[in-house]
Design goal:
single chain; 460 residues; 7-stranded mixed β-sheet; 5-stranded parallel β-sheet; 15 helices; globular
Length: 460
């Protein structure tokens, strides 16, 4: 048995950040990981998808080179095998980087699956460290989530989750996607650009149901323009899988494809932790219950990231990790989780933070909208990426920025400016007064802030 001050379970974006910060803070720290450092995000989520999307972006730009006055002779085609190889290379480098950071912080790494014996003891099952028993004053559970596949979905080699789709050895001719959320829409845009015939089935009235309606509507229009078929408002039923493909019913229509991607949500990885032995409560879906400081029902055990089922984003998990370590250091600070940006790497991209118009209306908040289209922005025109807009929602009385919604080029980068602005409770007028460099995409934020007060010089 080895004794530690802090033991982290899971080495994803929440877990490895917690372990590194704990080690840097002087705690004797251990981390237990059953697979690879980086968790879902690095290995089968954020990083591999964005690496592939980057490759697809280069391909798309090359196809449109003539629009920029550049002539490319010969055939332009995607090499899926090389794209996959590059994805694996990026993952490998980042894995090694995380391992080095853990080592430099003095963190002891255990390879295997963690299983509680009590509130202060954990056994490592399976893996290279199987049989090791860890005693710790504090535990941080960061075991993440995995794709949810309901029982009505048949099993078969043609039915995939995002994990399998990221390593599909050959591009399919057609792809059926069940679920029009973030993951489903990102994969739809990625594969459609590569020439795959994509159909998205979303049982709710529109895609991206958790995103502002105006952004979702514009994305649906752009996806349709790119040849993606979107079927809303009716579930996919009578799903069948054969050795040659998949089929299902959407109302009275039969839809078929080479593969079916299941992207209707994720579930927590908590079932094999033996949480009852530690006195840690979970809800009826298996998510760990925590308070505002991420403390579980066991006073010395914390939980962060997807395992708690609040905001299932890598950067939220990393921020929660910092918060927990600060609590352990006796420097507890409030967690700014309400101002967490959301980024969707579709084509065009979407970046959001704060309240949507739908939320403000339901809450009875009196608000003002300032909106600026990329079509009126010089840098966007120079890039030939003019679809989309920046929209700022401000309180009608105080002028405080309540939400920012961006759809268009580099929206996932541009949204970063809005996060500290909202955290500092900035007003739209103050945001508009900040001088933004010209010509840049960031000017759209300034222009939208001016538009809140009807003072935008570059709109009629």
């Amino acid at each position: 048995m080895e004794k530690f001050d802090v033991c982290v379970i899971g080495a994803g974006p929440g877990g490895y950040v917690a372990a590194i910060r704990a080690g840097q803070s002087g705690f004797k720290t251990a981390i237990v990981e059953k697979a690879f450092p980086g968790g879902t995000c690095l290995n089968v989520g954020c990083i591999p998808t964005k690496t592939l999307i980057a490759g697809v972006g280069v391909y798309a730009t090359a196809r449109r080179a003539a629009e920029f006055g550049v002539e490319i002779s010969g055939e332009i085609r995607p090499d899926w095998t090389r794209m996959l190889a590059r994805k694996d290379d990026v993952i490998g480098k980042l894995r090694n980087g995380i391992s080095s950071l853990l080592k430099s912080a003095g963190v002891t790494v255990f390879s295997g699956r963690g299983e509680f014996l009590s509130r202060r003891q954990l056994m490592v099952a399976d893996g290279e460290s199987a049989g090791s028993v860890i005693e710790a004053d504090h535990f941080i559970v960061a075991t993440g989530s995995e794709p949810l596949v309901p029982g009505f979905i048949p099993q078969g080699n043609r039915i995939l989750t995002s994990t399998e789709l990221l390593s599909l050895p050959k591009l399919p001719k057609s792809l059926l996607i069940l679920g029009g959320g973030v993951i489903g829409c990102e994969f739809a845009c990625l594969f459609a650009e590569l020439g795959v015939n994509v159909t998205v089935v979303e049982m709710l009235p529109r895609i991206l149901p958790q995103t502002g309606g105006e952004c979702a509507k514009l994305l649906a229009r752009e996806m349709s323009r790119r040849g993606i078929r979107i079927l809303n408002g009716t579930p996919l039923s009578e799903i069948k899988c054969t050795a040659r493909g998949v089929s299902g019913k959407v109302g009275a229509e039969t839809v078929k494809a080479d593969y079916l991607l299941i992207s209707i949500g994720r579930k927590p990885v908590t079932a094999d932790l033996n949480l009852p032995a530690a006195g840690v409560r979970v809800d009826n879906r298996g998510f760990i219950e925590v308070d505002e400081a991420f403390r579980t029902s066991a006073p010395n055990i914390f939980a962060i990231g997807d395992a708690v089922g609040k905001i299932m984003l890598a950067h939220w998990a990393s921020a929660a990790a910092e918060n927990v370590v600060n609590t352990l250091r006796g420097k507890s600070v409030s967690f700014p989780g309400a101002v967490t940006p959301g980024c969707i790497f579709t084509s065009p991209e979407i970046g959001t933070v704060g309240k949507s118009e739908e939320q403000l209306k339901s809450e009875g908040v009196d608000y003002v909208v300032g909106k600026f289209p990329f079509a009126a922005l010089g840098k966007a025109m120079a890039m030939n990426q003019t679809e989309g807009f920046v929209k700022i929602l401000a309180d009608a009385k105080s002028d405080q920025v309540l939400g920012v919604h961006i759809i268009g080029p580099h929206a996932t980068d541009l949204i970063a400016e809005a996060v500290p602005a909202m955290l500092m409770e900035i007003t739209a007028r103050e945001l508009g007064r900040a001088i933004h460099a010209h010509p840049t995409l960031g000017e759209a934020m300034m222009e939208a802030a001016h538009a809140v007060h009807g003072e935008c010089a570059h709109l009629p």
